[in-house]
Amino acid sequence: VYTTSQFGQRAQAVNQFGQPVYQQAAPAPVPVYGQQPVYAGAAPAVIPQQPIRQEVKGPHCTVSFAGNPEVNGTYVLNGQQDGVASYKHTTSNIYLMRATTGRSTNWWISLWKSGPNDTDDYYYAQSAAMAPPSSGWMVDRHCKGRQPMPQVVYRQS
To answer: Are the C-beta atoms of residues 54 and 85 closer than 8 Å to each other?
Structure first.
């Protein structure tokens, strides 16, 4: 639909409600996972089971140079946390894992007391990477970690 000016010339395109139409966009295609459409919104009818992406640099990693000696040592793959591989210290309940809260994704070196919600945090690194960072570890007033900061090295055997 076009409106006309008082002089009879076409002024601009308007929609059925008289609002200007600047560009007509084609409807976006609905993504399909398997045979079912996937819709964005509060509660999709079908929740696709997507594979978890993970970048595992090695089956073992070693944490070294941490100011807390109980954190240093070998960690082995131990399931997944936050959709990526997590690692567990070979001789204690200290974990190297990723967690997302709100808009923040961090890797943590934490002692699990009775589970992932009851921990003593030693160090964290601000990173949404699929594997724990080698450097960039920090402490805040809630962490038990001390200087120097740890370094993570990956090993294949």
So the answer is: yes
